[in-house]
Amino acid sequence: MTSTMAWSPLLLILLSHCTGSWAQAVLTQPPSVSAVLGQRVTISCTGSSTNIGSGYDVQWYQQLPGKSPKTIIYGNNNRPSGVPDRFSGSKSGSTASLTITGLQAEDEADYYCQSSDDNLDDHTVLWAWEEVR
């Protein structure tokens, strides 16, 4: 019984360290971004040394209301066929970015970034506004 008790603190330390490491794998995006139609808008995705920062590619997904998510960027900066060239992706260190140049009304959607085996948990809601003159 004494030997089991001696292992308990070590096990707790190990578990807390592992839990902290797993928590660092989360990708963080702003909850929402808004821009005027026709403008350039950028959505950021901040990761860590366990995903984006360790060289894993980044994918971006667009989910229109009532639809399934659609890949708009893969391998950091590649567009699947059919995705307009106003969408572009980039990556620097532990941060990736999705840029839309010339925002259009149909770009209003939820946007998700993904890297490594991370789930599509966090997302950004993009709102497009018409400029009032």
From TrEMBL:
Signal peptide bounds: 1-23
Pfam families linked: V-set
Record-level GO cellular component terms: extracellular region; immunoglobulin complex; plasma membrane
Domain of life assignment: Eukaryota
Domain Ig-like span(s) in chain numbering: 9-119
Principal place of residence: membrane
Protein localization: Cell membrane
Keyword set, alphabetical order: Adaptive immunity, Cell membrane, Disulfide bond, Immunity, Immunoglobulin, Membrane, Signal
Binding partners and assembly: Immunoglobulins are composed of two identical heavy chains and two identical light chains; disulfide-linked.
Presence of keyword Membrane: yes
Protein name per its UniProtKB record: Ig-like domain-containing protein
InterPro entries per the UniProt record, alphabetical: Ig-like_dom, Ig-like_dom_sf, Ig-like_fold, Ig_sub, Ig_V-set, IgV_Light_Chain
UniProt keyword annotation of Signal present: yes
Gene3D superfamilies: Immunoglobulins (2.60.40.10)
Upper taxonomic lineage: Eukaryota, Metazoa, Chordata, Craniata, Vertebrata
